[in-house]
Every structure is written in structure tokens, then in C-alpha cells.
Amino acid sequence: MADDLVVTRTFVIPAAELAERFSRSSGPGGQGVNTADSRVELSFDVARSPSVPERLRYQMLCRLRTRLANGVLTVAASEHRAQLQNRAAARARMAGALRAAAAAPPPARRPTKPTRGSKERRLVDKKRRGGIKQGRRGGWDLN
């Protein structure tokens, strides 16, 4: 349970369903840059996972479609020099992406009409701007 990924209170991914891969990170690192595998890739199979509720699976697949490869979501972290920090960053990024994909859609917007006051303010402002622009015109200094 300690390595399980908690997405929401009711949506927890067991550690056995997460795949981690380590590789050498690019960027500065001194003498340890060629020896330490600090970059972390965390993968989770959204399409075939038994821990994803069926009511959410289609919604998550639709929302994550640009980030999936064969139904697998992969996130990478290499911003830290230590592998443990990159593992934590990758897990947080994965949980955030899954949480956003599983979130309820926002309520539908009810269209409204502009008020009479806002229409009047807009027209007054247009008249004022028109007057300013008309004052910039040439022709008043023709002599």
C-alpha cells in the first residue's frame, strides 16, 4: 500500500500496475552524469487496468488520447539530479494527469444576453474612441 499511487480517495492504483524505467538524464551533473540513471519514466496501462473503474475508463481514454500510446500513459521526470526526487515528481505528474482525466465535466454554460447598461457603455465608448481617431485625421491644417 505504501507504493500505491493515490489518484483520488476512491481511485488508487496498485504498485504492481505501474512500470518504472530508469535512464541517464541529460543536462548538468558533474562526474556522476555518465554513471547515475536519474531519469524516471513511469507507465500505466489505462486501457487494460482492472483498477480503473469502468464508468471512468472511456472518459479517461478520450481525455488522454493525445498522451496515450496503445492505451499506455507514460510520464517522464528528469528535472532533479537524484533518482528518488525524480520518482516522486513522476508519480505526482502521473496522479495529476489521471486526476484531471477522471474529473467530472464542468457544468454546461447557460448563455446570457448583454444587459442594456453594458450595451450603452459599449456604444458610448465607441463614440469616444471614434472622436479621438477623428481628431488624428489630417485636413484641419491645409493652409
UniProtKB/TrEMBL annotation:
Region span, Disordered: 94-143
Molecular function, one GO term: translation release factor activity
InterPro entries: Pep_chain_release_fac_I, Pep_chain_release_fac_I_sf
Top-level EC class: hydrolase
SUPFAM superfamilies from the UniProt entry: Release factor
Record's keyword terms, sorted: Hydrolase
The UniProt record lists the keyword NAD: no
Positions with biased composition (Low complexity): 94-103
Composition-biased stretches (Basic residues): 124-136
GO BP, one annotated term: rescue of stalled ribosome
E.C. no: 3.1.1.29
Domain Prokaryotic-type class I peptide chain release factors, residue spans: 11-136
Family indicated by similarity: Belongs to the prokaryotic/mitochondrial release factor family.
Protein name: Aminoacyl-tRNA hydrolase
Gene designation per UniProt: arfB
